[in-house]
Amino acid sequence: MKCRACAKKAVIKLPSHNSAFCPECFDRFVLSQVGRAIDEHRMIAPDDHVLVAVSGGKDSLALWEILTRLGYKTTGFHLDLGIGDYSRESRGHVESFASRHQLPLVVESLREEVDGSVTDIARATRRPACSGCGLSKRYFFNRTALRTGASVLATGHNLDDEASRLFGNLLHWHDEYLAKNRPDLPAIEGLSKKVKPLVRLTEKEMASYAFLRKIPYVLKECPHSVDAKQLLYKKLLNEVEAASPGTKHAFLFGFLERIDRFYPESESPDPEEAFLSPDGRCERCGEISWTPVCSFCRLKERVREELARNGEKEPRPS
Amino acid sequence: MDPDISLLIPHPERSLTVINHQTGTTLHLKPVKTVQALLGVLGLSPETVLVIQKDGLLCDDDPIDPAQPVEVRPVISGGSLS
């Protein structure tokens, strides 16, 4: 198979674009897709300071590298989840990347802040581990963005992440989440602007990019994500994609073209939590909150209560 | 020995080594000619994995060298928010 742009040997076939590319042309393709997403959704201005949330996986590390190549001022942020070897390996890749590229990095520890493991959080909240983990990440990302003076928070969500999220939200008609199922969420007082510059690229494309750019990343999956519903939705969408290339893109971008019509700001199903500015702060941690005590501080309290109820002084291993 | 007589000497069947670092598994399969055929044997969609041999990415219709190990690297992740 030959590259559609230069006729050299192709290393990746992109049926959804009816194309195939050699490493050099694929590199240009990826940079152009990220640049297009940033421009179309006005994600990042040239003078913005971008806090990049890096997990140690292919997408977030590749995003950090791409934003740096595109000339943006970036700081990395890694939340160490304390999940055994998985977290140790993830953190190692992030720290090595930052050191190799001489980029600033902030690392926080969930276990130190909550005084409990991800397993403790799941048991205390009676919810899947991903739920407490997501809540914690959002809290730390916002807090770190404000502390570092970053004007934009960028995450490595790709086309598959966003399409599968949309699929799940539609299956359950989660209007409050559908209204926010977009690659750009504006800044409001006390909360940073959030953007997803990889929204035009698939997981396969991002994994290929990370491989070709020789970016080491954690290959293991988070042990808590094995049963995640998102994996099922991705599998189903990929089956449709194999039979009809381009469907994932059409599904997500068709929705984004209509989102303002479906969910105009003024008629947002949950206006207080959608785009309006909150006016309060958490009485414990001082971070922005719609309630007297923010959801993260309530989570910490529940973990403490759970450990005390079980007579445990030490957090359980994750 | 009569030069017209040939001997058929049986040899151990060759196998293709397929490695998955994510699961830590190694398979030894009957050699296949192309990436597409390998993915068919493994029941995988091309959208969900990278196929790597001799430090290079392979496309669906690329041939596979049976003498070299092949890495099949899953690309789908889930449950993460960053």
Question: What features would you describe in this structure?
Answer:
The complex is a heterodimer of chains A (318) and B (82). Chain A has 318 residues and is of the alpha/beta class. Chain A is 50% helix and 11% strand. In chain A, a hairpin with a 6-residue loop joins strand 9 (280-281) and strand 10. Chain A is globular and about 65 Å long. Residues 266-277 of chain A have low confidence and may be disordered. Chain B has 82 residues and is mostly beta strands. Chain B contains one helix and five strands, in the order E-E-H-E-E-E. Chain B has one helix spanning 35-42, and strands spanning 16-20, 25-29, 49-53, 56-57, 70-74. The mean pLDDT of chain B is 84. Chain A binds chain B through residues 1, 10-13, 20, 53-55, 57-60, 79, 130, 133-134, 137-138, 141, 155-156, 160, 164, 202-204, 206-208, 211-212, 219-222, 224-225, 228, 230-231, 234-235, 238-239, 241-242, and chain B through 21-22, 45-50, 52, 56-62, 73, 75-82.
Question: Strand tally of chain B, please?
Answer: 5
* CATH topology-level fold name of chain B: Ubiquitin-like (UB roll)
Highest CATH level, the class of chain B: Alpha Beta
Oligomer: heterodimer
* Dominant shape of chain B: globular
Q: Could you state the order of secondary-structure elements of chain B as H and E?
A: EEHEEE
The residue-averaged pLDDT of chain B reads 84
Structural class of chain B: mainly beta
Summarize the main sheet of chain B: 5 strands, mixed
| Major β-sheet annotation of chain A | 6 strands, mixed
What is the terminal-to-terminal distance of chain A?
Answer: 45 Å
Helical/strand content category of chain A? alpha/beta
What is the N-to-C order of secondary-structure elements of chain A (H for helix, E for strand)? EEHEHEHEHHHEHHEEHHHHEEH
Poorly predicted regions of chain A are: 266-277
User: CATH superfamily of chain B, called what?
Assistant: Beta-grasp domain
Query: How much helix is in the residues of chain B?
Result: under 10%
Shape field of chain A: globular
**Rg estimate of chain B, integer Å:** 18 Å
Q: What percentage of the residues of chain B does DSSP assign to strands (E)? A: 25-35%
Main sheet: strand order of chain A: 5-4-3-6-8-7
How much of the residues of chain A is beta strand, in percent? 5-15%
